[in-house]
Amino acid sequence: MKIPYYPGCTLKTKAKDLEDSAIAAAKVLGVEMEELPQWNCCGTVYSLSTDDLIHQIGPIRNLIRAKEQGSDRLVTLCSMCYNTLKRANEFFLADEEKRDRINRYMDEEMDYAGDVTVVHLLEILRDEIGMDKVKAAVKKPLTGLKVSPYYGCMLLRPASIGIDDMERPTVMEDLLRALGAEVIDDPYKTECCGAYQTVNRKDVVVTCVHSILTSAQGNGAEVVALSCPLCDFNLDNRQKDIQQAYAGFHTMPVLYFTQLMAIAFDLDESVCRFELSSQDPRPLLKSKGLIA
Amino acid sequence: MKIRLSRDRVRGEFVKRVEMISGQDLLQCYQCGKCSAGCPAAFEMDILPSHVIRLAQMGQGEELAKANSYWICLSCQTCTVRCPRGVDIAKIMEALRLVTLRQKNRNKVEATALPMELLVELPQIAIVSNLRKMSG
Amino acid sequence: MSETFDKKALIVGGGVAGIQAALDIADGGYQVILVERTPSIGGHMVQLSEVFPTLDCPQCILTPKMVMCGQHPNIDIKAYCEVESVTGEVGNFTVRIRHKATYVDWDACTGCGQCEQKCPTKAPSEFNRELAFGPRKAIYSPFAQAVPNKRVIDADHCLKLTKDKCGICAKVCPTQAIRYDQKDWIEEIKVGAIIVATGYELYKKENLTEYASDPDVIDGLEFERILCPSGPTAGVIKRPSDGKEPLDVVFVQCAGSRDPDKHLPYCSRVCCMYCCKMAMLYKHAVPDGQAYIFYIDVRTDGKMYEEFYQRGVEEDRIVYLRGKVSKIFREGDKIIVFGMDTLTGKRVEVAADLVVLAMAMIPNPAGEKVKKILNLETDTFGFITEAHAKLHPVETGIDGVFVAGTAQAPKDIPETVAQAGGAASKVLSLFSGVEKGGKAALKEMAG
Amino acid sequence: MKPRIGVFVCHCGLNIAATVEVSEVVKAIEHYPGVAHAQDYIYMCSDPGQELVRKAIREKKLTGLVMSNCSPSLHERTFRNLAASEGLNPYLVEVANIREYCSWPHQGDKETATKKALTIIKATIERVKRNQALVPLIVPLQKRVLVLGGGVAGMQTALDIANGGYPVTILEKEAYLGGRVRQLERTFLTMESAPDLANEMIDRTLKQPNIEVLTTSRIENLSGYVGNFEVQIRQQLPWVDPARCNGCEACVAACPAEVPSTFDRGLTTRKAVDWTPGERHGDRRIFLDHAACLRVTRQENCTACREACAEGAIDYPEDRLIDRTYGAIVVATGHDLYRKSALTEYAEDPDVLDALQFERLLSEDGPTGGKVLRPSDGKEPKEVVFVQCAGSRDPDKHFPYCSKVCCMYTCKEARRYREKVPDGQAYIFYIDIRSTGKGYEEFVKESVEKERLLYLKGKVSKIARKGDKLLVLGGDTITGLQVEVEADLVVLAMATVPNPGAKELARLLNINTDPYGFIQEAHPKLAPVETLTAGIYLAGTSQAPKDIPHAIYQAGGAASKILSLFSRKELVHEPLVARVDQEICAGCGYCRDNCAFQAVDVDPIRKKAMVNEALCEGCGACATACPSGAIQVKNLDSKQVFDMISIVTQDYSMQP
Prior knowledge:
The complex is a heterotetramer. Chain A contains twelve helices and eight strands. By secondary structure, chain A is α/β, with parallel strands linked by helices. The longest helix of chain B is centred in the last third of the chain and has 13 residues. Chains in contact: A-B, A-C, B-C, B-D, C-D.
């Protein structure tokens, strides 16, 4: 299966670990993610105002790029991109008058009718590949690894956009179980990490992430699995700041679900780019015999 | 503090603008507080989300101008998806940000003022989203 | 209208509404056929611990009425029966009633209970809301004071019926009443008027996904059973997960009610009072305990209700918190409740031992079939629409068919009893008017 | 004659037999003095069980039965009927309750339970030994109903009973039917015209041939009891003959007495002789209000109206007294609003209205023809404040209870105001919004959103005049801030109180009222339309504040009780009543003073207490009060009670 893929800004730099591991792991399952030849920033956050049409143009243009590739689907890895692109498309479908105005504005591009479905890789794994097939591809089951999945906000909310039940999602759990991991359910898995406040209100993020990680640890998790580069930055890099704010806090590694797939599929360790992690996961993985 | 209510207040320019930008009917809110109860950033807000809407219902623009709540808001949508009356509170928070940001020189964060080490440390996704929320 | 007029009434549903209407009509000298889906009349009211605002126990005030129904020469209780079809019109309805197989010959059964005592198979008790504490047997009567006092075999759990093993009940029955080969059978009756009193159910907890699905997060009727002195814990307050006595109990009102966006827009009317009552009873049983009630508006608007609420606050030290609960989840031994007090503007977090959700009232799904058969108009939620909200609150759009109790809308017991009396008076007027003034009287009533 | 008592011990399946050793009990009682037969059976109430009892009565020639089984509330009647069918007087049968009183509370303790069962049975045997054969009292039943009050509740009760074929009299103190509903503009929820709704019901009432309506009438005197209430009615005969009156209004012009209109809640005035209020009222006519006429108020011999009338339609006949017998009475006397002046922190001001006054302002047949204009200067108010719980939910100074309907009617009134004054703003101060009926929550939501009503959670502390405006000082407890509104008009949702005169009426009828003067029902759950006096029922807001649908089905409930009552040929009264030993009674009257049913009186000449057996409920309060033991309850006299106590004290070695 070939599918156009939209990376978004961060996957090319700080979240290269997400991109590389995802592309490699998907390939094992017969999914070829082909990067759009031309793409632009999605805007990272969906505009919540009713009178800001300009902010819809960025995401819509990316959807047109998928259309240009002859596809009516576009796959994403980053939760923020997924949310922004999918909501923009939803907006575009719902409002005919605004749709017409956006089409008129984009004079070079083809008219867009709202007919590209934005999907997240997790949806493809669940709905098209199936967890049985994932399980069959596992060569090195993550036996004994206690993983707490973390969804954050943008994969789940609002309901019309979410890839799963917005309060009780299970897709990542099912995937991790297929990979052989021990899944730790945590009530904070849908709580926000503090998001963009990380820029000028680091303290807010520190409090949010501290709650999330200590809850996961309290339930016995050794590692957190997620899918968003912003969540990843806050949960992983901000642990240094948490240590300063909260005495006695124990750090823990944070991995993208795709990295865990790559490990379980026994792919070359280089696709995981563990060196990009702030909290090095390798000692834990080694102790579990999952990497050399 | 005392609030003086009149028609010019509760149906004033401020209320109209917030409702227009957000596309939400403020009076749909019946003050159950569920948004505040679940807000993950509320610990840092000086006025909780339900009180923000309450003040907006009463047309208290000046009071709200002083609040930090909507600058702390994470746009995580937890409030929105749990609101029993279907009020998109995140949109109201966005509208309150925009009411300020759309005034000249009222950016909360200036891109040019961000220190270099921060720009190096942070992923793009953080910088772009922050500027989208904090500047006009 | 044809020449005959059957001055007999059919009442569908044997809860307090059906019981009251049956007694009123029967006392008025007319025959009543009271059809009940479960093995006993009594409805939800007999499940309750005590009832507000008097704190009477339903065992004291309802079971005598149930017995009166059972003994009344004018009342024919058809328990474990369902209405299959209705044809005809006011004065001449033909009703087919399905007698569901009980596998027990009720004419022979004396209700001695030896079969139940010896039955080796346990099954969750519907009467105890399927709580872990209170299972029943495969041959059972739902509760001690059941009317009629007869046994029923649960075909899904009986070893004889599922696996052709056991057969103990047949061996121990002193009157040889067990009939493993019994089948459903249909009876046809004629009636002149019908009262629908099919009652309510609670909205399912599972619909509120932001609240954890947890054995210690229970609905109001489950807590009623735990509070009930004759309930499965004999009135000792225990939480389902580990049987411990809960010391911090949180009540969450409007769970699914007043939520037009995702659940039900209407107010369920009785939750404010029953939460206050349950919190009081809990406090009486666990003097060290603390009850918290999250609410939006305290709707205690009946006679002596406001006073009752004040007593709960002042005497039983219930902490009322104005705000909806956003999230409930387990953290080790505790249930964490994220709430809000909109009055201080502060967020409130309670580490509770037990959480009680005052789930919205919905029409009893078991009543759907009857409503369809009778072609009754309902609102979007399935509550039966009355002919006129103000002037004809017990009449339906169909002549000779009336409504009583929570089948029409959420309401409390006094209002249900009053409405049931109102419905009965319409039937009595109809029958008595026909008797005294002939059919001309009917026309007048219709006017 | 020596007693030959049969004792029957029921197993009740395992209910009794699992805890009480029934065979031992039978063995032990067989030879007890006076016992001629003892037997146990698994279900004494079953057909084979009953057959055993019959056989024993016949063969052993039993003179009394002690049925040892469940509570008498369950099967006393069963076994008494059985005895009667065998020619044994049913009052020689008593139940020894060994289930609820014994096997159930002592589960798992066979020894205690068996001993106790035996004691209970022996005590009951002693009682039966002294029981007398009694005959039930037959009381005639007058199948005619008196309904007090012609509002919607009263009319609905009357209609249901009249449709059932029985005659009904409605007594209404005003000159017209319809009660409070006729004063309203619309009803909430459906937003229908309230006068139309009332008029539709009035039409049905007036057309129903079984209903007699007596307006400007009240009850003067009452005696008797259920089935036979002797009622004296005082009817003010109309001083204007409607058959002769041509509506020329000459009398109105001539009348010197001008009074505030009660119908318009004092917003207008009327002459003592004037039109009946409400233009849309079906039987609008010129009518002379006795309460306002100088002939009554000042005892003057004013004849101005009679002189002015060219048709000779006016005269001043005396009130008519009517004596009637009724089988049942329904109290539906309705409610009023608490007086505004009681809330002294709120200004007494022409622009501070109560909710009924505001209804009149909204009404097309009201003083402003339905335009919302403020009373002080006739200007259209642009800022209107509604204050809920004015006097309600105030246990310290006013009423602790909730008036139930204010939340809904305030919302409706604010909505109607906004529909009539689109550029106006309505503010509603509340504590809790109590919109609990069917569709009510949705109605409030829709009104708030559509009419932009601003709800403020908090009571209003003060209302004061400030020039052209009314200063309203309130709070918004949600933001925790003080709120001040400069209003043009204020509407107070005053607490619902019983209609004046309800207390005196209750005294006359010998029924109870609650501390606020509402009529007390017999049981809030299971007897909500009955009073403790048999034959007197209640409906509508006389019992408690309630809305129209609730009043309507409560009215139906009262009617159904009466229809049931009337379905019998006559009333059968239990003979277990008090009896006075005339030779012992000293006529002190303690029994009379302690009787809750007014069943005992002292004959003033003979100085002896007399029991009205039809009224006596057999409660025994008189017997406990009697210093000499002259008054006793039949089949439970003090000798019997002491005999039973002796058994218990012997068995448990207690000092009596």
